[in-house]
Write a structure and sequence with these properties.
alpha/beta, Arc Repressor Mutant, subunit A, globular, five-stranded mixed β-barrel, Nucleotidyltransferase, domain 5, Tex N-terminal region-like, 29 helices
Length: 712
């Protein structure tokens, strides 16, 4: 770990260097983000997961920058051009763009117009023009370079070649590139236009047929929309800089006089900007604005995913799940309280209603069903109406978002879980399990198939995957995982566990039965002390030999808690059950070099609610009866809905008509809202008012503002 990395990150984040250094050391030792944030607060100064992740990612970026710096220094040395001054410039570069600017004049490149001009011996002419001396007559000087054998047949050809050399030199000047980069960032504009003849097929991009917007203020979703329109060859997209100011910056740097030679230099500047620099700056701005747009889109996607994964679970109750189907019938499965498949069948509520009713009543009674989960796809509302009409006693009826269920049903994970059942059974199982525990089921599906986020297939896929993996890992570890019932996929997201270790845990369970204590994890194949240290605190064993095995208290602190109980003359179980005993604890007595008050407070809080699920209590939801199609909607209607997706410009709401409506950001509240997440969360139940229904474009506009604010 290099000290200048630590100091730089500390300055960027406004944190003491020792916090950065300690976190970096823990990461170097193989610590995971959840483990470091939860169990190493004394070392990090109680940095949360966001801060630890930021430090981890910034360290990786700086390491990549350092690696590139070393590559460039070696290339310059190999070329024999590495002077002390050049080495200093390379070492001083603090960003990749500045580093590449320094290297640009020396980077091996294809033959350019300037290269060919040099080959024809015109560099001395370029130098004389650049000197801009008053006694320099460009035509007279250029005449000496006319040579048919060197492909310089005329004075004008000689001057043109010299200008090509100067144009390339100007375009590679690091100071100029830095200044122009700032101008493009501050005053550049996006210009989007319709590709001629594509109007009919480009209607979804109608807003961008003739569109201009400042580069610095364009939001992520509009940048991505324009880029997608361009990639589909429906839009032409340019990033244009303030040409006058850019040329002025070039002239201030390179024009030294007002004479004939300077006029040639001015021509070279204009050519260099138009042919080289403007295109280079546009390319850079494309990269930077895409990176910016990707970062924001990925952030929104990750936050939506977090909210969805942490949605309220029904809990361990027997569930009957229905995957609606009008032509092929509704595929039905019954799941026990642990999510195990105990029965599957098919019913036809539309054609064989009496038999369907009899089947449902029988199965609900036989398997003591607590809830019926109905997928919200085609036929979902009709199926829901049929099931609710049965008035089944003590059975909740819940519509479940089935996005991605078909992806799961065809996955290797599903085939391993249910090798003897077809896709339809697996899909129904997924719907049912999403009700009982959304987190445990959704981790089995590629997050991009879950139906949250926007433009997820357009953004940097590596960055997206890393962010979503971080999000899933954070959610899984914040909730904790039941060691004896978790799937291999869920276990693979536990801090410190690889996919192979997770499968080995499942295999160990099959061979030896349920775990009775956390320490048994050390008997699992390839699961060593380091993995145990990272994982143990996030794994729960209900009814375990040691009561703390069901909690988030780490095994490394069991001796401490045993000591607390001994000091009070009670057992650990007593300490968990009795608040009056916990109130007698004087935490300051247990502070030492290895443990401080932050960890002690966490332990005390966990003793008060050992292993309790941090997710909110489940609340059943019902769509408005009789509202099942877009045609049923009328402006002014008040409807219950579920937030399905959140974007930078608003939120999408399922109101039960198979087409989500849009709550534009301006309609989320009576006050100004900068971020929709200030007001709503994915999977949240809301009340909305219909503003308009556009049947042709399949668009529904909704509002959560008060009626008096309804637009005229």
């Amino acid at each position: 770990m290099q000290d200048h990395f630590v100091n730089r990150i500390a300055a960027e984040l406004g944190l003491p260097p020792q916090q950065i250094s300690a976190t970096a050391s823990l990461l170097d030792e193989g610590g995971t983000v959840p483990f470091i944030a939860r169990y190493r607060k004394e070392q990090t100064g109680s940095l949360d997961e966001v801060a630890v992740t930021t430090i981890r990612d910034r360290l990786a970026q700086l390491a990549d920058l350092e690696k590139r710096r070393e590559t460039i220094l070696k290339s310059l040395d190999d070329q024999g051009v590495l002077t002390d001054d050049l080495r200093h410039k390379v070492q001083a570069a603090e960003t990749l763009s500045v580093l590449e600017d320094v290297y640009l004049p020396f980077r091996p490149k294809r033959r350019t117009r300037a290269t060919m001009a040099r080959e024809r011996g015109l560099e001395p002419l370029a130098e004389q023009l650049f000197a801009q001396r008053g006694d320099c007559n460009p035509e007279l000087v250029a005449a000496a370079f006319v040579d048919a054998d060197k492909e310089v047949p005329s004075i004008e050809e000689a001057l043109a070649g010299a200008r090509d050399i100067l144009a390339e030199r100007f375009s590679e000047d690091a100071t100029v590139r830095t200044e122009l980069r700032r101008l493009y960032e501050r005053k550049g504009i996006f210009r989007s236009t319709l590709v001629r003849g594509k109007e009919s097929e480009a209607q979804k991009y109608r807003d961008y047929f003739e569109w201009e917007e400042p580069v610095g203020r364009a939001p992520s979703h509009r940048i991505l929309a324009m880029r997608r329109g361009e990639s589909e060859k429906l839009l032409t997209l340019r990033i244009l800089g303030p040409e006058g100011e850019c040329l002025g910056a070039l002239e201030r740097r390179f024009i030294k006089s007002e004479n004939a030679a300077a006029a040639q230099v001015r021509l070279a500047i204009g050519d260099g900007f138009k042919r080289l620099l403007s295109l280079a700056m546009e390319t850079e701005m494309r990269i930077e604005t895409r990176k910016r747009a990707d970062t924001e889109a990925i952030r929104v996607f990750a936050e939506n995913l977090r909210q969805l994964l942490l949605a309220s679970p029904l809990g361990e109750k027997p569930v009957l799940a229905l995957d609606p189907g009008l032509r092929t019938g509704c595929k039905l499965v019954c799941l026990d309280a642990q999510g195990g498949l105990v029965h599957d069948d098919v019913i036809f509520p539309d054609r064989k209603a009496q038999l369907a009713e009899q089947t449902l009543r029988t199965l609900c009674q036989r398997h003591q069903i607590a809830a019926i989960a109905i997928g919200n796809g085609t036929g979902g509302r009709e199926t829901e109406r049929f099931v609710r009409g049965l008035n089944l006693p003590n059975v909740q009826v819940v519509m479940v978002n089935e996005a991605g269920a078909s992806v799961y049903s065809a996955s290797e994970v599903a085939r391993q879980e249910f090798p003897d059942h077809d896709l339809t059974v697996r899909g129904s199982v997924s719907i049912g399990r999403r009700l009982t525990d959304p987190l445990a089921e959704l981790v089995k599906i590629d997050p991009k198939s879950i139906g949250v986020g926007q433009y997820q297939h357009d953004v940097d896929q590596t960055a997206l995957k890393n962010s979503l993996d971080d999000t899933v890992t954070s959610c899984v570890n914040s909730v904790g995982v039941e060691l004896n019932s978790a799937s291999g996929k869920l276990l693979s997201y536990v801090s410190g566990l690889s996919a192979q270790m997770a499968e080995n845990i499942v295999a160990y369970r099959r061979q030896h039965g349920a775990f009775s204590r956390r320490r048994q994890l050390l008997d699992v194949l390839r699961l060593g002390p380091k993995a145990f240290e990272q994982a143990a605190g996030f794994l729960r064993i209900r009814g375990a030999h040691h009561p703390l095995d069901a909690s988030a208290v780490h095994p490394e602190r069991y001796v401490l808690v045993d000591g607390m109980a001994k000091d009070l003359g009670c057992t650990v179980a007593d300490l968990i059950e009795r608040a009056d005993l916990r109130e007698r604890l004087q935490l300051e007595r247990y502070v030492d070099d290895g443990i401080g008050l932050p960890t002690l407070r966490d332990i005390l809080a966990e003793l008060a609610r050992p292993g309790r699920d941090p997710r909110e209590q489940f609340e059943a939801f019902e769509f408005m009866e009789g509202i099942e199609r877009m045609e049923d909607l009328q402006p002014g209607m008040q409807l219950p809905g579920i937030i399905t997706n959140i974007t930078a410009f608003g939120a999408f709401v399922d109101v039960g008509v198979h087409q989500d409506g849009l709550l534009h950001i301006s309609q989320l509240a009576d006050r100004y809202v900068k971020d929709p997440n200030e007001i709503v969360k994915v999977a949240e139940q809301v009340q909305v008012r219909v503003l308009s229904v556009d049947m042709d474009r399949r668009r529904i506009a909704l509002s959560m503002r008060r009626e008096k604010d309804k637009p005229a």
